[in-house]
Every structure is written in structure tokens, then in C-alpha cells.
């Protein structure tokens, strides 16, 4: 069926987005973020999980974690465009929390049919989650897992697990004699060990998680199909986060160059400053349009969701790199200092730019869809 007007972004979605922006503006301004995560500037500092669990519980109380959970499982069942709007505000605030991972797990569980019902009910009840589906090589491809399932137990290691120390549950992909299965396991279950990774992004934590004879609940024996169905939504909501962060970078830089004086004029007076900022705005607008187009396709054109999601993530990754570079450069001498807030977003954007595939990878996948892998290879 054809896409609705305005990508299906209706009044409820607009109210949700506006309320999320006010929530973060009132309760978590950027100065609070900096004080929370940037207290230690030493490069040799240990990996830390710095966040505000009390504020997270308020978000859970607002129902944000259950937005993508179907009504049949006790959730709200809002369309993907509404979820994208919320995540855009999450990116604008760069709030450290497991919301993105929980939403990602929700989309996968919703694709598992009846097997994912209990896990979805856990999320609807307030449990947070993260995906543990990546191997050590960094491939997101569902079959490339270092975890196996045998005798009713999980063994192996899942790598690059996002916000693992904030999550209550993990959705794990594992090899089985019959193919690939998906399993729901508590992060504090016996045999589960979370090994924190040191990453540049101060607003997130990452870990590799080992499983040693871990009992888990099977949610799907056909994990490949469920992950394939859910990945467009996962790429799209990450792209929405990138767009929100880029909007913060643009707004903050515009405000700075409008007040910083050089040669008796604001920096923003000079074309060497104006033109790059206009280009940042154009890249953000392009990425944002593609994000909501992809989100709308998830709701109304599922057959084209993957194609549009590749376009959205590729464009958003480019915008992340460009907006980050210009925000630091146009802040001049203070732009690269620890005290300047822009480094928090620069690092978050660099992490997001590569997460679940960079722009080049997504364009290669898009080419396979549009012209076919043989044509792309010149065969």
C-alpha cells in the first residue's frame, strides 16, 4: 500500500516527540550530561557505566520502553515513525540509557511470533534489553555468531553488545543443529559474564558477554527470519538518533558563531563559516527525510523497508561525520577541549556512524537490492 501523507506522523507522534524534548530539556541539559560522564579526562581511565537510573525509571514510567511493543503483548503498539521521533530526541539529548537496545530487541521479538510473547511482556513490564547477536569480527550478519546452543545451554561469547551493563535482559543469537535460534536471558543469570569494553563514546557502554552453560528461554528457532525482518527498524531508529545528535551539533554551533566575535564581527558573519553550516543543515534535512521515509515504510510498505532503511542509515552516517567535523572546527580553539561539550556528541556520532554498518556498507547493500549483486560486481 502507498505511504500516507507526512509519513504517517500524526498528532500522537508529534505530542510524544514534543514531550520527550521538554523532558530532556528540563531534566537533562547538556551541562548535566557533561558533569555525569566527563568527570575523568585521563586516556587511561577504566571503562565506566555512568548514567542516571532514577531518570531512566521515569522514562519507563512514561511508557517509552513499550512504544514498539504490540498491544497484544501489553504494549502501546505505536507506529515506527512515532518511535523514530522519540529516538531523535534521545539523540539530541545524548542521554545514556538502554532505550535504543530495548527498542531494537522489541522489534526482533515482535518478529518471532508467539515465541516472543513472554519476552515482550517483560519489556512491557519495564525490563530493559539489548541485542547480543554479533561475532568477534564485528559482523552483524545473523549467522555470524560465536555463541552456540546445545543441550539446553548457551556457550560462547557475543561481542559489541550495546549498553550491556544497563540492560536487564539479552536477546542472544546462537547456532543450533537446526540453524540459528534466538534466546532470552537475564544479564544476572548464572554463567553470564559481562566484560566491559573501552570505547570512545562516553554516553554509551559496550561489552562482550560470555555464556558458560547458561540456561535461557528460546524465543525463536528461526532467528534468521526474525532478525531479517527486524533489521530495517534497527537501522532506522539508529539513524534517527544520529539525526537528533546532528541537530544538536548544528544548533549549538550556530549559537556559538553568532556570539563569538572576531575582527569586530560575529564569526557567523563570514562566508567561510556560513556555508559549511548550511551544508550541515542540508545533510541533516536529507537524512531526516530518509529516516521518516524508512520508518513509514516499516509501517506501510514492509516490502521496501530494507531498501529505505539502508538509504537512511547511509545518509545519517555521512551526516554524523560531517556535522561532527564542522562542529569541532567552527568552535575554533576550544572545540577540541575536554571542557567544550561538543566532544561528547562528536564521540557519540563516531560510534553511531559505524554501529550496524557504515555508509559504504549500507550503500553496497542498497546496490544489491536496486541493481543486483552480479551487476554491481560487473558480471
Strand-helix topology:
Elements: H1 11-27, H2 30-37, H3 53-61, H4 80-93, H5 99-110, H6 117-124, E1 129-132, E2 147-150, E3 153-162, E4 169-176, E5 179-186, E6 192-197, E7 206-215, E8 217-220, H7 223-259, E9 261-262, E10 265-266, H8 271-300, H9 305-329, H10 342-354, H11 359-370, H12 373-376
Parallel strand pairs: 1-4
Antiparallel strand pairs: 2-3, 3-7, 4-5, 5-8, 6-7, 9-10
Class from helix and strand fractions:
alpha+beta
Spatial strand order of the main sheet: 1-4-5-8
> Major sheet, described briefly?
4 strands, mixed
* CATH homologous superfamily heading of the domain at 225-376: Butyryl-CoA Dehydrogenase, subunit A, domain 3
Distance linking N and C termini: 34 Å
Describe this protein's structure.
- The protein is globular and about 75 Å long.
- Helix 5 runs antiparallel to helix 6, helix 8 runs antiparallel to helix 9 and helix 9 runs antiparallel to helix 11.
- The chain is α+β, with helices and mostly antiparallel strands.
- A four-stranded mixed beta sheet has the order 1-4-5-8, covered by helices on one side. A four-stranded antiparallel beta sheet has the order 2-3-7-6, with no helix packed on it. A two-stranded antiparallel ribbon has the order 9-10.
- The chain has a domain of 152 residues: Butyryl-CoA Dehydrogenase, subunit A, domain 3, CATH 1.20.140.
- Helix content is 50%, strand content 15%.
Give a nutshell description of this structure.
With 379 residues, the chain is α+β, with helices and mostly antiparallel strands. The protein contains twelve helices and ten strands. A hairpin with an 8-residue loop joins β6 and β7 (206-215).
